[in-house]
Amino acid sequence: xxxxxxxxxxxxxxxICPGCILLIRPIFSENTTVDNPLxxxxxxxxxxxxxxxxxxGARVINLSLAVARPSLRVEKPVEDALxxxxxxxxxxxxxxxxxxxxxxxxxxxxxxxxxxxxxDPYGSPLNEPNLGSSIGRRxxxxxxxxxxxxxxxxxxxxxxxxxxxxxxxxxxxxxLWSEFPAATASEIKLAVSATNQLRRxxxxxxxxxxxxxxxxxxxxxxxxxxx
Length: 227
What we know:
Distance between the termini: 40 Å
CATH architecture: 3-Layer(aba) Sandwich
Structural class: alpha/beta
Helix content: 25-40%
Strand order of the largest sheet: 1-2-3-4
Radius of gyration: 17 Å
Number of strands: 6
CATH class: Alpha Beta
Strand content: 5-15%
Oligomer: single chain
């Protein structure tokens, strides 16, 4: 994710916003078991991490993760943390998940979160991502197939899925906010999400259009100057 966001331009990674500052807040243990081969964390651990990122001054939070077993009881801490992000004007981008299900979680149904679905090179959603009404209304599609970035051992790493797609949206938001520092969090969020209305009628979201978002913010900036 860090490589996709801020590797040097010209590297093998997409390098969307190399001038932005990253705050890395791990929540997963590197130890896995046969019964649980994927890294995991509790909802409370995730919530604490969100609080700490907000308090540290993060303006955009990338959640390349998904809730494995949704339930109202275990999701409450996450919902509270996302509400804090709203009150502090911190935009949250989250992977929609790769279980191929129809529905939502405390993360993807939260009205402030931008859910992200992975798509193929032609802009069509992959078969694995979770879809749903909240994801379709407020989410975005971004590249999620065979994306090459940097690994921890300095070798190229090619992966796919919604976790890989999420930083494309996060990076676009960070880049747009860098270009329009006077814009509010709501304006930035609206710029990336309101440029295509197809989301309102489909469980699959539209493709991220950073150029349209830029033009939206540019027009808004010019209107403020005239006023």
